[in-house]
Amino acid sequence: MTRLCSDSNTRAHSSIGMSPSLTSSILKSNITRTLKAPGWRQEWHVGVRASESRKLVAFISGIPVDLRVRKNVLHCSEINFLCVHKKLRSKRLTPVLIKEITRRCYLVGVFQAIYTAGVLIPTPVSTCRYFHRALDWEKLHEVGFSPLPLNSTKERQLVKYRLPNKTSTPGLRPMEAKDIENVLDLLMRYLSRSDLAQVFTKEEVEHWLLHNKESQPKEQVIWSYVVEDPKTRKITDFFSYYLLESTVIGSKKHKVVRAAYLFYYATEAAFDKDKSVLKARLNALVKDALILAKNVSSSIPT
Length: 302
Hints:
The chain is α+β, with helices and mostly antiparallel strands. Helices cover about 25% and strands about 30% of the residues. The protein is built from 7 helices and 12 strands. It has a single domain (about 5-295), classed as Aminopeptidase, CATH 3.40.630.
């Protein structure tokens, strides 16, 4: 795990701004987790197979999601994993897939859908900017992702991105099943500050934010942490990140680059009358997220 990126809306997308030396790869457990969200429908997993070989050559999927737009809650579908075999991309399969998933959504009374894209498609309702923060700059430089800036040296870059070994926030610990209701309450209050946000249920918080050790004992995708007040035992802060892999092309030293994407987060500091408190608190929480992501990478072979 060598990068931390901010990603407030995507579930399992490829790395943005990827170097030509890297190609995206997604863990099987992550695909299963994304396709089988609470309320998922098998008919919303649409594939196209070759008539003779029966190989899968195109795919699109959708999952149900409740989306709050200001004060209105819309029952939508979230479209993901649209892909077409490279030899068939001139055959205009993409519009066919989109029309088919649209038709299947209409059949169950869902008439709005959301999706994300790395290009500008008319007309966006929201935008998201990615920020890369190197956790292992030397490795990213060796695989061709991070160039050496002008008037700098490798030693300066290593010092620049150096992180402490331990977190600094008192009461910080991994999220547990007992925290689901408190995290849901904090997250929904935090998201209420936005005009566009998902409306979560208890089941969705458990699915998206809590690692299931029984069904996925080896491939952990999501890491979530809470800050518990030692006196009141109240959950005051929460943050999470998920893992995506990229295969390194043309390197004898490295095979995989793992990226940690900042996912959902919330803090009670957002409701403080002093607005400057929120910025300082978020900076402290994200710094701890960087440290935790960095420490996790040492236990995962790359």
